[in-house]
Give the backbone structure.
Amino acid sequence: MTATAHDSLLVFDTTVLHHFALADRLDVLADLVAGQRVATTAVVLDELRTNSERERALTAALELDWVDVIALDTITELNCFAAWVRRIGAGRRDLGEASVFAAAEIHRGTAVTDDRTATKVGRRYGLEVHGTIWLLAERCRSGRLTEVNAGAIVDALRETQHRLPCTGAEFSSYARKAGILPLPSAHIPGPTRPPTGASVRAQD
């Protein structure tokens, strides 16, 4: 069964936390994931800390009480991390993605990243990997977010130079074409009914 934003640990990569912080929307992200476990890795926090020296807004992402930090310090975790480093790469940016993929694999979670290249690699090896557009669409499907508000979030993130695959105005049509939002005639489940159906492998 494909994981959804409601029944899986979400492990955030640098790209997501970075741009929500720059857009001053970390509180919005917290609302989107309220009620479920969210994590990132110590490697990602190191990346954010380094980048915060030139982008002070990123300091807000370093101590989020709703995000657990996975250290990846056990033998099993370190071996898994090393495997993902070989698959993705050993550059500074690649290490953050590799750490998130290792954490998601070990803890049976969903990796959340907006890096398209890394997403393709993760899916090639059977990992559940999605991005911000998918997360917003899941919240729209559950009734916790309107499509108009989702579009506003997309535009706020794009103003920080975040390379999302659609604009706010295009969000609904893009998500429906990708299969992560139902067609207008389809039934949209209420907040108490989790969405069903297979997740597509579009760049979401």
The longest helix spans residues 92-106. The first strand starts at residue 10 and ends at 12.
